[in-house]
Amino acid sequence: MTDRRAAATWMFRAATVAALCMSLYHIWVIVPPMDFISPALRKVFPGPPADYIFRSIHLLFALTITFLFYRRASLTEDELAMRGESASASGVGAFDLAALALAAAPLVYVLWNYDYFVNRIIYIDDLSTADMAMASLLVVVLFEATRRVLGWALPVTAMVFLAYALFVSRVEPMRLLDQLYMSTEGIFGQTLAVSATYVMIFVLFGSFMERTGTGQLFMDFALSLTGHTAGGPGKVSVVSSSLFGTISGSAVANVMVDGPITIPLMKKTGFRPEFAAAVEAVASTGGQIMPPIMGAAAFVMAEFLGVGYGQVVIWAIIPAILYYVSCFAAVHFEAKRLGLHGVPRAELPRLSTTLRERGHLFIPVVGILAVMYLGYSAPLAALTGTALCFPVAALRRSTRHYVTWRNLGGALVDGAKNTIAVALACATAGVIIGVVTLTGLGITFTQVVLGLAQNALLLALIVTMMAGIVLGMGMPTTPAYIIMTSLLVPALVKLGVDKPAAHMFAFYFAILSAITPPVALAVYASASLARSDLWKTGLSAMRIGAAGFITPFMFVYQPALLMMGDWPTIALTFVTATGGILLIAAALSAYLVGPASLWQRLAMGVGGVALVWPGALSDALGLAAAVIVVGSQTLERRRADARA
User: Fold this and answer.
1) Helix residue ranges per DSSP H, 339-362
2) What values do phi and psi take at 39, rounded to 5?
3) Do residues 577 and 611 lie in contact, with contact meaning Cβ atoms separated by under 8 Å?
4) Listed residue (629, 540, 615) closest to 582, CA to CA
5) Backbone angles phi, psi at 595, to 5 degrees
6) Among 41, 365, 569, 586, which residue's Cβ finds the most Cβ atoms within 10 Å?
7) How far does the chain reach from its first CA to its final CA, in angstroms?
């Protein structure tokens, strides 16, 4: 098996070099031209190249790393021995190298013939035989690469859209290839631009933070704040996962980083395994909606709406707070109901010690916020935070051991490898958008949704919610959100929903599929760590994350939750919504200030919905329900104490 292992080692090293080059290239093009300092520096840092070139190089890197790193599944040594074949006869790596060569050809063709691509007239000038061959080849290898990294769901979805274009809409194959390959309305469209411009550098920033010990800071910080309270380990999971969301846009990645620490702690203090796994899944999923650095789909949203990323962050602040308030409250009420305590303070890190030894690692995040606040672009802000990570780690002896050339190289490689899933998803989603644009499917789908809803906004929202959850079951958040934006969001806008609210609605439900059975990837990951039943964990996750399913409906009917409107209205809406979320969490947990009977749970549920629903009358009803339940439970507790 020497030849077999040597081939695998060689391809792994080649993938590592390609990943290193990808990160360095994107850093180089993001650095703005600095001719105001010296004209010579403009030649060193010329800024991003033309769109076609930049996106083609980005995709070329992603495909190269994919075919070198995600190699085709091959036979094991035992299977080869049973067949009587040698390792060299198995052709290990040959298929992958051939696929890599085929993947590179269409992109090199774009770079080599750049002037031809930008000067031709789309739909007017006929495609040459070489154009059609390269276009077809890129679609095929893109689907294969996406399948290797993300599974079958997204490629099959794209194939269905292609079949619709060819066999239902009867689009000419040449015109379809023109749209997908020869223009910036398909594979090289805005979604791939977001991956190249925004996602790559923010993922790289997350890798730099992980490599400089920020993950341990987040964990110690959360433990010192909440570890000693009732159900402390569960609250640690909520706090630390919300912080991890600033360095990882993946729910599963958050679970696998945070879960091995928090889940055993939760089980040790008395939480059921399925509840512990559900808390971690819900908290980790919320990382994608947690400012200041959200999931990749947030950058796509900014591009679609034509606003700065900072504006998306502002819209997301209150919904993210409501999401985590619900999760935190669910843990608290469950712990109180079960009579669970926290971890003894003597076993926890001290907040003062944590901040003294590692608090300086918050500086890169503060740096990003400062640069964005000053009005500079989000990529430049992320680059600033990335550049600060290792120098900041070198400031204190407690983190100085992270500052090594090996760690720096590892951060660069990790950043590129963690980006390829998003890059391939965005490129494949570009195929879907190209078909939707070319065939007018978006208009047709809007008419269908409007027909089903019969101008009833609530019904249209429910259809959109179900579509988001179904789409998200088989693919990452970004392509699920992109498809919803193309097909469903226009219908919501036509029914009178504000554009930001419509996009945020789709964004949220594309994310929440990660905790919605039967296909819930974050639940799968956390259940494997907790060794709990998948269905029980999934149902617990939906209960804990109830606010995530309610909040999107709230900000559609009350845009003040997106900080749209005057400040008194925003503040009042936030307060009442928070109260409503707490009552709903208490109703689902059967505990508020004491154990809740059936009528009290019903009262809290009705009161919570009333507080969530906009309007003074509904707020008064919700407040009355809360007062009645709190009063009755307080009296019950006093009677119990008197009997004791």
Assistant:
1) 351-358
2) -55, -30
3) yes
4) 629
5) -60, 140
6) 586
7) 75
- Over residues 442-475, the pLDDT tens digits come to 777 777 777 777 778 888 888 888 877 777 665 6
Q: Residues, the chain, total?
A: 644
**Amino acid residing at 421:** A
Token code pair at residue 641: 């104490």
Cα–Cα nearest to 514, from 550, 545, 489, 491: 545
Cα 317 → chain centroid: 16
Under a CB-based contact definition with an 8 Å cutoff, are residues 490 and 436 in contact? no
Helix (H), strand (E), coil (C) string for 140-207? HHHHHHHHHHHCCHHHHHHHHHHHHHHHHCCCCHHHHHHHHHCCCCCCCCHHHHHHHHHHHHHHHHHH
Alpha carbon 242 to its chain centroid, in Å, reads 12
d(CA 606, CA 631): 17
CB of 309 closer than 8 Å to CB of 372: yes
Residues 502 and 488: beta-carbon distance below 8 Å: no
Rounded Cα distance, 152 and 66, in Å: 15
Crossing angle of the two packed helices 567-589 and 616-643, in degrees rounded to 10: 40
Is residue 589 a contact partner of residue 334, using CB atoms and an 8 Å limit?
Answer: yes
How far is Cα 100 from Cα 102, in angstroms, rounded to an integer?
A: 5
- Express each pLDDT in 142-181 by its tens digit: 999 999 888 888 899 899 999 999 999 999 999 999 999 9
Q: For residue 35, what pLDDT is reported?
A: 52
Q: Shortest CA distance to 511 belongs to which of 545, 561, 540, 476? A: 476
3-state secondary structure of 415: helix
Omega before residue 552 within 30° of 0, cis: no
pLDDT at 79 over 50: no
Q: Which two tokens mark 320?
A: 């993210």
Alpha carbon distance 644, 640 (integer Å) = 6
